[in-house]
Amino acid sequence: MKLLLDTHILLWAAAGMLPKDAEKMVVDGDNTLFFSPVSIWEIGIKKSLARSDFKVKPEVLRRGLLDNQYQELPITSLHALAANTLPQIHKDPFDRMLLAQAKVEGMMLLTSDGILRDYPAPVIFISRHVDTWL
Length: 134
Hints:
Blueprint: E1 2-5, H1 7-14, H2 20-27, E2 32-35, H3 37-48, H4 58-67, E3 71-72, H5 77-85, H6 93-105, E4 108-111, E5 123-125
Parallel strand pairs: 1-2, 1-4, 2-3, 4-5
Helix pairs in contact: 3-4, 5-6
């Protein structure tokens, strides 16, 4: 199965803090793992806002993902068009793009965002409370 990991799940994976159900999917050799530039962009924006709860360097995360066989999924105009057609359930443009990418590419979006479960789309919801972003 092709899995696109959302930003929270990527950060948890990098920190070795994945919930068991997500870890099982991530380590399954039959699954292909993807990350989106939108997650790297989101991390960079939150870091540049000097949030005290956000310490990860986006360039370090990207390198680690590539080194661990994650594939980068480019953002295309088809993804942008698909994001524009999504119902206005979720207002976060990062999450909307991730969902659109998963939908267009026939992937499952692995997410901890409960709002994304309300879309008629390929979402696997992972529940876990994390107090701070890395």
